[in-house]
C-alpha cells in the first residue's frame, strides 16, 4: 500500500508540474489530500538568497480537510503553485514567499515590494501580502486581487469585528489612499493576533506597494506603535480551487533600507 501511495503521489506531482509549466523548476514540493496536520510537505520550505518559500497548507492544523498542492520555484522572480482544494468553507493554504526585515518601523526609510502575478478565473482565494510586526502580534494583510468584494462580501471575506445582517464584513474606513493604492480597511482579531486587512478597491495582479507608508498609517491611527517588522510575505490564500488551479508569481522583490 505504501508503494502504491508513492506511485500515486509521484503521478500527482508530475501532473501538477506539467499543468503549471514548471517541469524544470529548481525546487518543488507536493502535499497530499489529508486531514492530518502531520502529513508530508504541508510546510515544505526552501531558501533562495534572502527569500524563503513555504507550501503552508495549514488547513488540517485547524481541522479543515485539504486537497493536494504543489509549490514550485526557480527564484524570487519566478514561482507558483498548483492547488486542488475542495469547494468547502475554511482557508486551506497560503503558499507564499517571504523576506525577513527585522527592523523597527522608525529605522526604515524605505520598505516597498513589487509583484506581478497570474491568478485563475474561478475558485475562492485572495492574492495578498502578509506583513508581520511586533513579534507576530499584528498581521497586516494587503489584498491585491481576490474573488470576494471590496465591501467585505462574497466567497472570501476579511477578518472583522463587525458584520452586517447580510453576513458581510464592515470596514472601519473606506477609500483610504495610502501606499500607492486605494483601500477599504478592516480590523479584527483571529484568536491569535490582531489583523488589519486592506482590500484594494481596484483589483490588480501587477503593482508596487509602499509598505512603510501603510505601517505609518497604522501608527497614526494608534493601532500599532514603533514595532519591529518581521516578515513581509506574498502569496495566495486559497479557500477553494476545485479540479486544480494554477497561481503564479513573477518579479517579486522587497526593498528595505
From TrEMBL:
EC number: 3.4.24.-
Similarity annotation: Belongs to the glycosyl hydrolase 12 (cellulase H) family.
Transmembrane segments: none
Listed Pfam families: Glyco_hydro_12 (PF01670)
Signal peptide: 1-24
Official protein name in the record: Zinc protease
EC class: hydrolase
An MF annotation (GO) of this entry: peptidase activity
Organism this protein belongs to: Pelomonas aquatica
GO biological process per UniProt: proteolysis
Keywords associated with the record: Carbohydrate metabolism, Glycosidase, Hydrolase, Polysaccharide degradation, Protease, Signal
Amino acid at each position: 500500500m505504501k508503494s502504491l501511495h508513492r506511485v500515486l503521489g509521484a503521478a500527482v506531482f508530475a501532473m501538477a508540474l506539467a499543468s503549471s509549466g514548471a517541469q524544470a523548476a529548481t525546487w518543488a514540493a507536493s502535499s497530499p489530500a489529508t486531514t492530518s496536520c502531520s502529513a508530508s510537505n504541508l510546510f515544505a520550505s526552501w531558501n533562495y538568497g534572502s527569500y524563503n518559500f513555504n507550501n503552508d497548507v495549514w488547513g488540517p492544523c485547524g481541522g479543515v480537510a485539504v486537497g493536494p498542492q504543489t509549490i514550485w520555484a526557480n527564484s524570487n522572480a519566478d514561482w507558483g503553485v498548483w492547488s486542488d482544494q475542495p469547494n468547502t468553507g475554511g482557508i486551506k493554504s497560503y503558499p507564499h514567499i517571504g523576506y525577513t526585515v527585522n527592523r523597527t518601523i522608525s529605522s526604515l526609510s524605505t520598505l516597498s515590494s513589487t509583484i506581478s502575478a497570474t491568478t485563475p478565473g474561478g475558485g475562492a482565494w485572495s492574492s495578498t501580502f502578509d506583513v508581520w510586526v511586533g513579534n507576530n502580534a499584528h498581521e497586516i494583510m494587503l489584498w491585491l486581487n481576490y474573488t470576494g468584494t471590496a465591501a467585505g462580501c462574497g466567497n472570501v471575506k476579511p477578518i472583522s469585528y463587525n458584520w452586517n445582517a447580510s453576513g458581510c464584513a464592515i470596514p472601519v474606513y473606506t477609500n483610504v489612499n495610502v501606499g500607492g493604492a486605494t483601500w477599504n480597511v478592516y480590523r479584527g482579531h483571529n484568536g491569535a493576533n490582531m489583523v488589519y486587512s486592506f482590500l484594494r478597491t481596484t483589483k490588480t495582479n501587477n503593482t508596487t506597494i509602499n509598505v512603510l507608508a501603510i505601517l505609518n498609517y497604522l501608527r497614526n491611527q494608534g493601532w500599532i506603535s514603533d514595532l519591529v517588522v518581521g516578515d513581509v510575505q506574498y502569496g495566495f490564500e486559497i479557500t477553494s480551487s476545485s479540479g486544480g488551479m494554477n497561481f503564479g508569481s513573477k518579479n517579486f522583490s522587497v526593498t528595505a533600507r
